[in-house]
Design goal:
Strand order of the largest sheet: 4-3-5-6-7-8-9-10
Order of helices and strands: HHEEHEEEHEEEEEEHEHEHHEEH
EC number: 3.1.3.15, 3.1.3.25, 3.1.3.93
Cofactor: Mg(2+)
Distance between the termini: 38 Å
Shape: globular
CATH architecture of the largest domain: 2-Layer Sandwich
Pfam family, one: Inositol_P
Protein name: Inositol-phosphate phosphatase/L-galactose 1-phosphate phosphatase/histidinol-phosphatase
Number of helices: 9
Strand content: 25-35%
CATH class of the largest domain: Alpha Beta
CATH topology of the largest domain: Fructose-1,6-Bisphosphatase, Chain A, domain 1
Organism: Bradyrhizobium elkanii
Structural class: alpha+beta
Length: 263
C-alpha cells in the first residue's frame, strides 16, 4: 500500500476508518430496537433501511475522499476503481439487529487488488461501544493494543461459529468433529467472535458461507493481533475464496483444526 501511505499517514487512515465507524454507528443505533421493518433479499436473508442507509453514507464519504477507489458493498454491489477497493458490510448480523440483540457490527476493509493484501480493517460494534481496528502494524481494541490468546492445544481451545444453519450437512459433520475436541464451543456473534479472538477471549472461529464483504475486514483485525485467517484448505483468503473460513490464535491451532476438517 505504498501509494496510499504516500498520500495518507497511518494515523490519517485510522482517523478516516474511525470517522466511517462513527457515522455507521450513529445510523445503526438510531434504528436499533425501534421495530424497524425489513425485507427479504433473493437469497432470503433480511435487509433493513439501516443497512442501506449506512452503506449509502459510507459510499458517499469514501467517494469524496478517494474518488479513484472501488467499492464493494453487501447492499449496493460494486463500483469500479483503480487498484484499491473498499469492502463494506453495513450491518453484519442483521438477524441480531432486527431481533434486538446487540451482537451486530459494521465491517470496513481497504484492500490492494494489485498484491491481494488488506491494508486495514475494522469491526465496529455500535450497540456495545466496542471497536477493533487492524493493520500490518497491529490491532487495537478501543484504542488499546489487542493480542490473541496463547492457547496452543485444541483440547484447551474455545471455538466459536455463528450458527449451525450456515453449514451444509457435510461441512457441519466436519465442524462437529472438530468442535467436539475443543474445551467447549459457543454459537452466535457473527463478526463479534473475530473481535473476541483478536482480544484473546476465544481461540478458534470456523465458518462457511461467508462473502468477501463478510471476511475481508476480519483478516487485518485477527492477523494484526497475532492470529491467522485462512480457508479450510489452509490457503490465504481472497475475494474469490469459497466462503469457508477459519481464524486461529496461532499456527499450531490452525494446523490441528485443519487436520480434522480435512480428514
Amino acid at each position: 500500500m505504498d501509494d496510499i501511505q504516500d498520500r495518507l499517514s497511518a494515523s490519517e487512515l485510522a482517523s478516516f476508518f474511525n470517522e466511517l465507524a462513527d457515522v455507521a454507528g450513529r445510523i445503526a443505533v438510531t434504528h436499533f430496537r425501534s421495530s424497524v421493518d425489513f425485507e427479504r433479499k433473493q437469497d432470503l436473508t433480511p435487509v433493513t433501511i439501516a443497512d442501506r442507509a449506512i452503506e449509502m453514507e459510507l459510499r458517499r464519504l469514501i467517494g469524496a475522499r478517494f474518488p479513484d477507489h472501488g467499492i464493494l458493498g453487501e447492499e449496493m454491489g460494486s463500483t469500479a476503481g483503480d487498484r484499491y477497493t473498499w469492502y463494506l458490510d453495513p450491518i453484519d448480523g442483521t438477524k441480531s439487529f432486527i431481533s434486538g440483540m446487540p451482537l451486530f457490527g459494521t465491517l470496513v476493509a481497504l484492500a490492494d487488488e494489485k498484491d491481494g493484501s488488506v491494508a486495514a480493517g475494522m469491526i465496529n460494534m455500535p450497540a456495545l461501544a466496542e471497536r477493533w481496528y487492524g493493520t500490518r502494524q497491529g490491532t487495537t481494541f478501543n484504542g488499546k493494543q489487542a493480542k490473541v490468546s496463547r492457547t496452543t492445544r485444541l483440547e484447551d481451545a474455545q471455538i466459536y461459529t455463528s450458527s449451525p444453519d450456515f453449514f451444509t450437512p457435510g461441512d457441519w459433520a466436519r465442524y462437529d468433529a472438530l468442535s467436539q475436541k475443543a474445551m467447549f464451543r459457543r454459537f452466535g456473534g457473527d463478526c463479534y467472535q473475530y473481535g473476541l479472538l483478536a482480544s484473546g477471549h476465544c481461540d478458534l472461529v470456523v465458518e462457511t458461507s461467508l462473502k468477501s464483504f463478510d471476511f475481508m475486514a476480519l483478516i487485518p483485525v485477527v492477523e494484526g493481533a497475532g492470529g491467522i485467517v485462512r480457508d479450510w484448505q489452509g490457503q490465504p483468503l481472497s475475494p474469490d475464496s469459497d466462503g469457508r473460513v477459519i481464524a486461529a490464535a496461532n499456527d499450531s491451532l490452525l494446523e490441528q483444526a485443519l487436520a480434522i476438517l480435512n480428514q
